[in-house]
């Protein structure tokens, strides 16, 4: 392992990048603290110094990436922005929601992450939904979120040919049109 200069911000960023990649490929249970530290090129004690625990790192790595997408533009562009994040990415920048999907049913940290993301994205989508009935808006928002998670699952885990090979902008156009109808908005 090559020695890294003492730079707290760089170490933290390296740990987050390594964690995102490894959690996306192996899920929470399939990823060790040692593997994350080795991938980041640091001593595993630094992981605990920066994040407190594997759970803390998982939570920040997964929610941080998703919340960046959530807050990286106007609410009306949330659906296209989210679809692009799901449809893009490679081994270094894992597609949005992949770590949460691969960690389904594992650990309290994974459950916390899933709930935080459901609340954040579901709440944002419900705010976009037209109509006075809050329960109906929340239902339509969660149906939209289920579809987005399904797209992530088909693209990255099941690797279905049509979705995995699709032009991201074509998927953005189709999903945005359907979500406009479901939420009753102009999200495109």
UniProtKB/TrEMBL annotation:
Protein name: Transcriptional regulator, TetR family
Domain HTH tetR-type: 9-69
SUPFAM superfamilies, per the entry: Homeodomain-like, Tetracyclin repressor-like, C-terminal domain
Keywords from the UniProt entry: DNA-binding
Keyword DNA-binding in annotation: yes
Domain of life: Bacteria
Chain residues forming the annotated DNA-binding region: 32-51
Extent of the signal sequence: none
GO molecular function: DNA-binding transcription factor activity; transcription cis-regulatory region binding
Family matches, as InterPro entries: DNA-bd_HTH_TetR-type_CS, Homeodomain-like_sf, HTH-type_TetR-like_transc_reg, HTH_TetR, Tet_transcr_reg_TetR-rel_C_sf, TetR_C_16
């Amino acid at each position: 392992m090559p020695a890294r200069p003492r730079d707290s911000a760089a170490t933290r960023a390296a740990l987050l990048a390594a964690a995102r990649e490894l959690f996306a490929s192996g899920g929470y249970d399939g990823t060790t603290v040692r593997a994350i530290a080795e991938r980041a090129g640091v001593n595993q004690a630094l992981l605990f110094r920066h994040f407190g625990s594997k759970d803390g790192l998982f939570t920040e790595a997964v929610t941080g990436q998703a919340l960046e997408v959530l807050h990286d533009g106007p609410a009306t562009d949330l659906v296209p922005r989210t679809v692009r994040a799901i449809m893009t990415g490679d081994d270094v920048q894992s597609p949005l929601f992949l770590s949460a999907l691969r960690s389904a049913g594992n650990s309290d940290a994974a459950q916390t992450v899933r709930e935080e993301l459901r609340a954040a994205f579901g709440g944002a989508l419900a705010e976009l939904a037209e109509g006075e009935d809050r329960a109906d808006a929340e239902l339509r928002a969660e149906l939209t979120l289920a579809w987005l998670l399904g797209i992530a699952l088909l693209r990255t885990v099941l690797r279905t040919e049509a979705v995995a090979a699709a032009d991201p902008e074509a998927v953005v156009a189709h999903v945005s049109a359907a979500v406009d109808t479901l939420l009753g908005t102009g999200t495109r």
